[in-house]
Write a structure and sequence with these properties.
single chain, two-stranded antiparallel sheet, 68% helix, mainly alpha
């Protein structure tokens, strides 16, 4: 018997190390089964990050896309279709379809919000390149537009986080987990782990995109005091543990605080451009990963829908 290792307690609300257990799968399973097992096991070893950075989020999104590519392959296997077809009227099957639609909605809306953020970032970059004497108003206007885009994205994120709450417990008490058909039971368990992983990774993404904003205050020292309060500025004034969004927030806020002076702006303009470039690249990579994931989710849902509609 080939063993599929799944996570005993994958909490969608956190990402601690996970205990694992084995469920049986037929020895002559398709290679996609082994690949799905490998991807789930990789995620089961993740540790709690001290701070969510773009690199971590991108790694998780990439792994999630690979998981759904494997799910699609699994759903297209004749043995899987036959096992699920016999139970197509089970409530769990329709719940799985609903969840896939929910994940499609979250990934689509998050991608749209990321596109708006990227446009705002590039507007600031353009304004900074054009800035000369007397150009501060143009920069400030674009900075304000950036924070408006951040605020809109946070609202969309809040809606998506609320939507994910409905996906937490659909697998709770289904009799299919203990079905006498070991193949069916194993398939359902693997699909459950994929769904729980999806909720967890989406939450990581959404929490990354919705970190509290470091908006401009009445003075440079007002901003510094906020950073000290957050625990991300040392006594020497060096910023630590900021993710890419917070880093840009802090840089832009410092750029436009009243009475900072042109010398201060000139001295830090290069640093601001560098941080904006890093964030722009990160947001574009997230957008690309969401595009890829969206396609895999569509294919997985169509495959499941085709089985249940027979």
């Amino acid at each position: 018997m080939l063993k599929i290792v799944t996570m005993a307690a994958f909490s969608p609300k956190s990402t601690p190390p996970y205990n694992v257990r084995s469920v049986s799968f037929p020895a002559r399973s398709h290679p996609s089964v082994a690949k799905l097992e490998q991807e789930l096991n990789k995620i089961s070893s993740w540790q709690v990050p001290t701070s969510l950075k773009a690199e971590t989020v991108l790694c998780r999104l990439s792994s999630l896309g690979e998981i759904y590519r494997c799910v699609e392959d699994l759903l297209n296997l004749p043995m899987t279709q036959q096992a699920l077809l016999q139970h197509r009227n089970e409530k769990l099957m329709n719940d799985m379809l609903d969840d896939l639609m929910r994940y499609l909605d979250v990934s689509g809306k998050t991608r749209d919000a990321a596109v708006l953020m990227k446009e705002s970032i590039r507007d600031i970059q353009s304004a900074l390149r054009r800035s000369k004497a007397g150009g501060e108003l143009s920069i400030e206007s674009n900075v304000n537009a950036y924070f408006c885009a951040r605020k809109k994205m946070k609202k969309e994120v809040a809606k998506s986080l609320a939507s994910l709450k409905h996906a937490d417990n659909i697998f709770g008490d289904s009799p299919l987990f203990n079905a006498s058909d070991h193949l069916l039971s194993a398939i359902v368990r693997v699909l459950r782990e994929a769904s729980l992983v999806t909720v967890s990774i989406f939450r990581s993404l959404l929490l990354f995109l919705s970190v509290p904003m470091l908006k401009p205050g009445p003075s440079k020292w007002y901003l510094v005091s906020k950073l000290v309060h957050k625990g991300v500025v040392t006594c020497e004034g060096q910023q630590e543990n900021l993710n890419e969004l917070e880093s840009v927030d802090a840089a832009l806020s410092s750029l436009v605080v009243p009475n900072s002076g042109k010398d201060f702006e000139a001295r830090d303009i290069h640093s601001v451009q560098k941080r904006l470039g890093i964030l722009d690249t990160s947001i574009e990579e997230i957008e690309n990963e969401l595009d890829s994931l969206f396609r895999h989710l569509i294919h997985a849902r169509v495959s499941l829908l085709n089985i249940l509609s027979q």
